[in-house]
Design goal:
The complex is a heterodimer of chains A (225) and B (214). Chain A has nine helices and no strands. Chain A is an all-alpha fold and 225 residues long. The chains are: A mainly alpha (225), B mainly alpha (214).
Chain lengths: 225, 214
């Protein structure tokens, strides 16, 4: 094995910067302090780079929003997010808010009418979904809209005639259904805060609650007359 | 094309996301972005050392990607293609900054290349210890010529292999290795300079401190 010089050692590093040293290069390094220090320090730098790379960096969320706007403005995104899942199957053919409101109004009216006809406390059993009130207790909603609706809820319950427990019970059950939907939608928004569809669902759920409360208010006003 | 639902988006494979994005599916664009945004952003940030600029460059890289996604035929790895775009976007910016239209070769070859690497800087008392201060490393990387910086960041920091870097940087594998070695050598010099300057400042502070005591 012929000994190598510093210049050759440099060339070996340049050609194979990360390969294990050959026997000749190792032998040279053992005899040459400069090359030994060089080899060691290049290793320190390489490890520092690897360590730096192991740190996660997260781009800010608004970057996607901004990028998406740009893509839309350039027409690269050819369809808006219009998918509604199961919801669209029900309401996709017509203005959703109108149908959702109509559906819940009908549900409430049907429950109330049934309650009047049989005049029994369990009249709410005609509702398609049975939910325990404790399980669907209206949750504290994060948004201002949710707080406003909760304020409205208190006013509606206060305005209900005291002698009509069936109406109050039906209203609670229907509110339970809507609150469940709101809870699911809020969870989706928390998980995907920039997803317009998730926000769309949430506002839809709030709107359903508003429609329900408005219907209940009208009903209690009629009873009060 | 059936629109993509949010739950599907999270499960969408890259190939399917690319296919759908080529047809303009918004959710597929987002899926591709979410799959690669961290690496691209990290690359940009480490190349320019500035958050606002890195955000701008990341957006520009993805924008270029989505503009060209219709032409992607899968001959190369999608991530390599994307990172090539990102590196080009960054290099273009760096070149504009220096107001000099230089080729990649020029950008990676500073004047001192004629001779072999210098090994005598610092001396034994200023040897780099087992770890490098992160601030110093970032400062030193910022001072590298753009080509050296790209290869160092891609290989040592981002973990790319030389064959991938060769594709991304449009150079040979040998060139990538050589640039990496030179980048490390230059970093070594810079880190020693920082060490010397810190030692000088400490000496001056010590002098000032002992002087003020009298």
């Amino acid at each position: 094995m012929s000994p190598i010089q510093c210049a050759q050692f440099d060339r070996i590093l340049e050609e194979q910067p990360d390969a294990p040293l050959s026997a000749a290069a190792s032998a040279h390094m053992n005899d040459c302090d400069d090359c030994r220090v060089l080899w060691s320090e290049l290793g320190v730098i390489r490890r520092a780079g690897v360590e730096w790379g192991s740190e996660e960096v997260e781009p800010p969320e608004y970057l996607w929003t901004s990028l998406r706007q740009q893509l839309e403005s350039e027409g690269l995104i050819r369809e808006r997010l219009t998918q509604q899942g199961w919801f669209s199957g029900w309401f996709g053919a017509a203005p959703r808010w109108a149908l959702a409101g109509a559906f819940l109004s009908l549900l409430l009216i049907a429950a109330m009418l049934a309650g009047y006809q049989v005049n029994e406390p369990n009249a709410a059993a005609v509702l398609p979904v049975r939910l325990s009130i404790s399980a669907v207790r209206p949750k504290l909603v994060a948004s201002d809209l949710g707080k406003t609706l909760d304020g409205d809820l208190k006013r509606v319950f206060d305005s209900l005639p005291e002698g009509n427990p069936v109406l109050a019970s039906s209203l609670r059950e229907n509110l339970g259904i809507v609150d469940n939907l709101i809870a699911v939608c809020e969870k989706s928004v928390r998980e995907q805060p920039d997803d317009p569809m998730a926000r769309d669902y949430l506002y839809g759920a709030y709107e359903q609650k508003a429609v329900l409360l408005a219907t209940a208010t009208d009903r209690s006003a009629l009873e009060g007359q | 094309m059936a629109p993509t639902r949010p739950t599907e988006v999270r499960e969408l494979g890259e190939a399917e996301a690319i296919r759908r994005a080529q047809q303009g599916d918004a959710a597929a664009f987002e899926r591709i972005y979410r799959l690669h945004n961290r690496r691209v952003y990290a690359l940009c940030l480490r190349m320019v050392g500035n958050t606002a600029e890195a955000e701008d460059l990341t957006q520009e890289a993805f924008l270029q990607l989505f503009r060209k996604i219709g032409t992607f035929r899968g001959e190369s790895a999608f991530s390599t293609w994307l990172h090539r775009l990102a590196v080009n976007v960054v290099l273009m910016r760096l070149r504009k900054k220096t107001l000099a239209e230089t080729s990649l070769e020029e950008a990676t070859e500073p004047d001192e290349d004629a001779g072999g690497p210098r090994k005598d800087i610092g001396g034994p008392d200023l040897r780099l210890s087992g770890s490098v201060d992160r601030v110093n490393l970032e400062r030193a990387v910022e001072q590298l010529p753009p080509g050296y910086r790209s290869v160092f960041v891609l290989h040592d920091v981002q973990g790319y292999e030389h064959n991938e870097i060769a594709v991304i940087m449009n150079c040979s594998i040998g060139n990538s290795k050589s640039q990496l070695h030179k980048a490390r050598m230059r970093l070594r010099e810079l880190l020693h300079e920082f060490e010397r300057s810190r030692a000088r400042e400490e000496r001056q502070a010590a002098k000032g401190g002992s002087g003020s005591g009298h």
